[in-house]
């Protein structure tokens, strides 16, 4: 009886720790083959998850996203881009084409992952979890979810909020000041 109670408590604590991080699951790098375990790769980092599109009025935000990534990466920050064609099919179908566009047009070096669905019934588990935590799914391209070092949601920013907006920068800097989980 005592053993089963201890086991149940241990499993409950493990489940709570696993549920704490929204960065669960594995996704292929854009035009890549080997999936990346987000929770393992970005554990302890502050992460800005962004649904991107190559043919959108907000596409120039790639420049500011890359600048944030470059500026704060040494402190444990990463921008993670997830291309999506959910909104008026404003993304190329071919991942190689997406990759070339992002790299050649905007010099994107931050991690970009496979094309995914971010809204509706077809949303990936990552985006379903983000939407549930934030109380809002992306309504358009370039919605930004900021996750703290513990993998929990810190803030959610709509498409119109530029990545270099002072509120976004302040939230990133505050999250970076938190200690890394052990």
Automatic annotation (TrEMBL):
Oxidoreductase: is it a keyword of this entry? yes
Q: Which GO terms describe its molecular function?
A: peroxidase activity
Q: For this UniProt entry, which residues form the secretion signal?
A: 1-18
Q: Kindly indicate whether the keyword Kinase belongs to this entry.
A: no
Q: Which SUPFAM superfamilies match?
A: Thioredoxin-like
Q: Which residue spans traverse the membrane?
A: none
The UniProt keywords, alphabetically, are:
Oxidoreductase, Peroxidase, Signal
**Family statement drawn from the similarity comment of this UniProt entry:** Belongs to the glutathione peroxidase family.
Q: What is this protein called?
A: Glutathione peroxidase
Source organism of this protein record: Lysobacter niastensis
